[in-house]
Amino acid sequence: MAAPGQLTQLLQAAQSADAGVRTQAEQQLAALQAQNFSELLVSLSAELADGSKPVDARRLAGLILKNSLDAKEAARKAQLVQQWVALDAGVKKQVKHNLLATLGTQGDAGHTAALVIAKVAAIEVPRSEWPELMQGLLANMGAAATSKELRQSTLEALGYCCEELGNLDEDYLSQQEVNSILTAVVQGMRKEEPEADVRHAATVALQNALTFAHNNFSNDSERNYIMQIICEGTLAESSRIRQASWECLACIASGYYDKLPAYMQDIFSLTQRTVKGDEEDVVLQALEFWCTVAEEEIDRDQDASSASCDPDTVNHQFIKAALPHLVPLLLEQLTKQEEGQETDDGEVNSILTAVVQGMRKEEPEADVRHAATVALQNALTFAHNNFSNDSERNYIMQIICEGTLAESSRIRQASWECLACIASGYYDKLPAYMQDIFSLTQRTVKGDEEDVVLQALEFWCTVAEEEIDRDQDASSASCDPDTVNHQFIKAALPHLVPLLLEQLTKQEEGQETDDGVWNVSMAAGTCLALCASVAGDAIVPLVMPFVTANIQKTDGAESWRYREAATFAFGSILEGPGVETLGQLVQSGLGFLLTALKQDPNAHVKDTTAWTIGRIFEFVHGEDSAAPLLGPQNLPQVVEALLLAIRDAPHIAEKVCYALSQLASGFYEQRGTSPMSPYFKDVVQALLETAARPADLAEQTRLQTQAFEAINEVVRASAADTTPMVVQLIPLVVGKLNETLHINTAGSMEAAERQSEIQGLLCGMTQVIVQKLSDNDSAKAGVLQYADHIMDALLNVFACRKSSVHEEAMLAVGAMTYACGRQFSKYMERFFPVLQMGLAQHQEWQVCQVTVGVLGDVCRAIEDQIYPFCDPVMQTLLTNLQSPDVHRNVKPQILSAFGDIALAIGDRFEKYLQHVVSMLQSAMQLSVQQAAGADEDLIDYNNLLRHGILEAWAGMFNGLSKDKAEQYLKPYAPPLLEFVEAIWADKPGHDDGVLKASAALLGDVASTISGTGPLFQQKPYVQPFLQQLAQDSTTSDTANWASQMIQKALRG
To answer: In the chain, what are the helix, strand and coil shares in percent, each to the nearest 5?
Structure first.
């Protein structure tokens, strides 16, 4: 017999990758089994029990033991059973002792031992030869100091024993043993059990023990407790426990169907929760429970019709009772496809057939019909072939349109949702149905419930948005010539506009104060605005009679509705029609609106009036027109009215902030001075006071945000003569930032969030002020005067957070780098830990992305003074690039940052070149693979990636000295030219910025690397590529320079 050490080596050799070694070991093990079977079994069990032995050796020892006791073929199994029975009692006792001793050991040996114990039990328990087994296993569960490993593997052993013994013809466990097993198992299943592995093992064990639990399930209190524990398991944190709990319920549905009535309502609630939000493996088991119930009821129905039917057999009709709720749940799952999962036409047809069948008006169950309609909405993604077939499309559209007339409002609403999806996905298939759909629209909008009306209006909004997109696409160079705008909105305009205007008077009382409200009036206004964008000037004569007839109404308590609706209608049509068409109307109406803003007695009318004035300033003011809207004759009255109205209720003040923002923006291009300059101080002061107004938290947050956005726009649009006043804002905003440091946030998440919001607004204002003053050197002095105070305040804001970085504060620092230039280096020692934290904070990818951008700003500002910080920065950037957890949008910016660092530190970048170039090569390969895709998001991302790649190479070519570039970059010239060629060949993905950077890279290669002339001669695409770019004013300078550099290279 092999010594213990030799057996270990033999077991490992039997798993060798070398076939020769493996075959020889297997032969030796077979020989040992033939020579001394009993001694081998003892040795194998000792190997399994020895925690110091290698895991793979122990695993194989257990597998050989199991295979020595059991086999699939009945004859072989009987032979192995007799072989074990014939063994010496002492040998069997030693093997069993070793198996039980293995249960508490580390690794998966305990699991293997549990399997082998069950195989031995299946042989010996029927022969009454291992009477102490169950008592010993149960003792493991009762011991106070039992380890997690021992409890887990003991529960597995109990479960496997129940499974093996349950497969026998007779019951060999006493009721007392069954009770004790169930007690131990259910104890391990409780939600109070701290070890998930133990709880999972107990749940699996219960599933195997259910065969013996008939008496326990006949006892109400015991059954209730078991069911409670199982149901709690379906809500466990571990998905393995949830899945095993549903498996238990499926077994109970099969074995204890008659005991389910008291629990089915709770089980259905758990089903809804699981199916709608759990992992796929858990959902599958929840659905398996209902499949088992259905199969049981099918069997009972069939048995009821047979002569030998048991009269006590009852079909509890669980499926029929659950049908109205269960079918919708199942239909929702029909169209849940895995990403990349192919759906063939047969599958789609089967789904659509089932769904449309359930949608028919003949379907008696409203819940079923509603669920089918929702399911169709989800299935439409896959129905392109069906919608290309006239008869199939006609039938589907008929069923949907019938649904808009259903008795149930939920079905009507869902039907309109389907039509909106069709308007987006199958716009070109709509011409034959639009007349009927408009008739249905009239019927719905004039007389249906609000939720249904909202969806009918959403259909027309979707049509309008689709036609806006098609108009915009028609003007682009990459327009698909087959794309047609069917002008549904323009055709329907004479009938649709009156319908929409009627709905504008259906306001809700107090809706102006509720930021989240959405009702028929607001939906109609939104639809009207979209129609104006589509139809342009044609909508004005359809709307203005309604406006003039109602905007001055004062008769009756409800007259405010007509004034508000008329004002809303006018504001809604300001985007779309030309300035020439609107100009005279706005000129004559502005004074009236300003008066209404001051004097109208209704808050809702004043709210909408302020919004409309803002819309006028956004879409008409500042446009090139023969008669400017605002000038010395009316600007004083405008400012006066707005500064008065800003003191009104918070919801009105919000809209006034918007109006002031748009008013200032309209004077953006003024030089030296601006018509707004005399009002700068008063406007900013009023906005600051508004931001500080007390209100309830939600109102205050919205009002503060609007006020600060308006301040920022007033500063951006300010002329040079207000520069001293802009500078004076710096100490004010720094003071307010310092005040936020004293907000007590201890133990209050809400207070911490509020502090962060206020700091964000103040940091945003700081960024705008610094950027505005950095436009010219004389104004920049104002920033430098307060630079230390600004940076102290920003660094203190960063210090408020221990484990994250404030995004707005980081953006403000980016603005400071531009203003300070090389002087920014004095802040680096304090700022660098924040920078490094932001780079590493990839879980909040927007913060990480902003920080990478600021790193580039720092490099450009302090240049080679960034070098002492480069090692940790480069390590973090390279780690982020390689991590699959980092958001993909961050990675192109990291590549750009490599270029910024290379430009800043020059030849000292060579220590990072090998790693960076390797990353760039991988990125280039990915970009080429992603070319010619139809997905717009992928095209946009690919252009971001290309831009990052090109900027990285440009930084290295221009940062390294000519000698170093020649030494390190020359080998990459050919693949770079191929990369640019791939970009040029990808016509659908063309982006002006990427093409310009590509041309610049060609020039860098030609001017930096020697001997590239032959390389350019081999690339015939280069000349037409640069010639086309030379014809565009935005890229001509770069293309001409690159052509000159390439000509020099060609001349050698």
So the answer is: 75, 0, 25
The count of other CB atoms within 10 Å of the CB of residue 173 is 19
Joined tokens for residue 256: 């204890």
CB atoms within 10 A of CB 155: 31
% of residues, the chain, pLDDT over 70 = 94
Quick one: residue 565, left, alpha or beta (phi over 0 = left, psi -120 to 50 = alpha)? Answer: alpha
State how far the alpha carbon of 413 is from the alpha carbons of 172, 245, 408, 1038, in Å.
61, 37, 9, 56
Q: State how far the Cα of 948 lies from the Cα of 892, in Å rounded to an integer.
A: 5
Burial of 364 per CB tally in 10 Å (0-12, 13-18, 19+): exposed
Contact 719, 670 (CB under 8 A): yes
Say what the alpha-carbon torsion angle 775, 779, 781, 786 is, to the nearest 10 degrees: -90
The pLDDT value given to residue 340: 45
* Residue matched to tokens 């610094």: 770
Closest to 236 in 3D by CA, of 269, 278, 266, 205: 278
Question: Tell me, what's the pLDDT at 346?
Answer: 62
Distance CA 506, CA 23 (A): 86
Q: Say if CB 835 and CB 877 are below 8 A apart.
A: no
φ/ψ of 342, rounded to 5, equals: -75, 135
Residue type, 749: M
Whole-angstrom Cα Rg for the chain: 38
Amino acid type, 832: F
Chain-centroid distance of CA 568 in Å reads 35
Q: Which alpha helices (DSSP H) does 306-389 contain, by range?
A: 318-333, 345-359, 366-379, 384-387
Whole-number Cα distances in Å, 600 to 554, 559, 645, 859 = 10, 12, 11, 56
Residues (pLDDT < 50) of the chain are 1, 339-341, 343, 626
190-200 pLDDT, tens digit per residue, is: 999 888 989 99
Tell me which amino acid residue 337 is: Q
Residue located via tokens 């006066």: 640
Structure tokens at 606: 């004043």
pLDDT at 352: 76
Q: Which of 887, 810, 889 has the alpha carbon at shortest distance from 856? A: 810
Q: What pLDDT, on a 0 to 100 scale, did the predictor assign at position 452? A: 97
Return d(Cα 798, Cα 800) in angstroms, integer. 5
Q: What is the pLDDT of residue 622?
A: 64
Q: Return the pLDDT at 339.
A: 46
Residue 821 CA to residue 800 CA, distance in Å, equals 27
Place of tokens 């950077």: 997
Distances (CA, A) of 695 to 633, 649, 698, 744: 36, 9, 8, 19
Q: What is the largest CA-CA distance in the chain?
A: 116
The phi, psi pair for 787, rounded to 5°, reads -55, -45
Residue 741 per-residue DSSP state: T
* Exposure class string for 994-1008: b at 16+ Cβ within 10 A, else e: bbbbbbbbbbbbbbb
Token pair for 474 = 């028609």
Q: Who's near 340: CB < 8 A, 6+ residues apart? A: none
Residue 1012 backbone dihedrals phi, psi, to 5 degrees: -90, 0
Contact 421, 380 (CB under 8 A): yes
